[in-house]
Write a structure and sequence with these properties.
Elements (H helix, E strand, L loop, with lengths): L8 H4 L9 H5 L3 H18 L19 E11 L5 H12 L2 E6 L5 E8 H13 L6 E13 L7 E4 L1
Parallel strand pairs: 2-5
Antiparallel strand pairs: 1-3, 1-4, 2-3
């Protein structure tokens, strides 16, 4: 038990080695040091993508992962196989926003926005998985850019 909870633990024990930052430690309450540690833990988990914002809160760069926007076009058997519906569901599952639509050329195109790690995961999904009955020949990603805030509120299917 500390004799004075507001003093650095190494200064609280008699005969303990002196704190190298003695004058500094005396001025910082232990509770402040604990809060700083919690803040570092939260920041670290945020960079790993372990933290998800509460529903209704917009994401920003302050949450540990840079926001990006990227356009895409998927080629192959991607129309008439529920590709847009599965794309919307996967995007929502990852917490991404944007849109998806069929083109007159038989492809599917759209835009993804969200944290870089989540967008990369979705890009891989678009290139390799898609809907169960689709057959993806290739995926094209272009116009990638860093954004400060999201331009969309959710992930929409455009008719």
């Amino acid at each position: 038990m500390l004799s004075d909870p507001g003093v650095c633990p190494s200064l609280a024990k008699k005969g303990a080695p002196r704190c190298a930052l003695r004058s500094f430690c005396r001025k910082i309450p232990v509770s402040a040091l604990l809060l700083a540690g919690v803040g570092l833990l939260i920041a670290f988990l945020g960079t790993l993508g372990c933290l998800v914002p509460a529903p209704g809160l917009s994401m920003s760069m302050a949450e540990g992962d840079t926001l990006i926007s990227v356009d895409y076009e998927i080629f192959g058997k991607v129309q008439g196989v529920f590709f847009r519906k599965y794309t919307q569901a996967e995007g929502k599952k990852l917490g991404l926003v944007g849109w998806v639509q069929n083109t007159d050329q038989g492809t599917v195109q759209g835009r993804l926005q969200g944290p870089t790690s989540k967008v990369r995961h979705m890009q891989e999904w678009l290139e390799t998985k898609g809907s169960p009955k689709s057959h993806i020949d290739r995926a094209s990603f272009h116009n990638e850019k860093v954004i400060v805030k999201l331009d969309y509120a959710d992930f929409q299917i455009v008719k």
